Predict the 3D structure of the following.
Amino acid sequence: MNRLAPLSPRESALLILLGTIVPLALILLVVMPLLETRTTARIAAAEAEDLRNWVALRVADLPSEGPMETRKPFAQTSLAALEQSLVAAGLRSALTRLADTPGGVEIAFGPVRFDALTQWLHDTSPRWGYDVAAYRIARVTSGLVTARFTLTPTH
């Protein structure tokens, strides 16, 4: 028995058209964007994992200075000296915040080359008299990141 028989030809055509357009619209407007978002999230997770592994390798490359309690602390570097080291490294233009806070120092960078930032940290951090208490590095584009560091005095 044909369910479309009592309908006019125009009504039958509209129902058939509606029956094909609604599922296609659902796929194109809901399912496809969700799949793209999931793919983007997986890529971001993989990049975060790569960054975590890279940081772990860099930490493993650092020379052991003995337990934290036995290390002799360096004198704290002034904000002006930190800024001069940024100028020397060519990072001053990317600096968005360099502030003295009650607990230490805050440094923030806008888009900056990741390799230049890590080289500056590698060259400067062993002698600046601060420990990195917190940091956040976010990818902007390939090779560029934004970064924020909270430094506390070395004890």
Q: What stands out?
A: The chain has a mean pLDDT of 83. Strands lie at 95-101, 104-113, 130-141, 144-153. The longest helix spans residues 9-61.
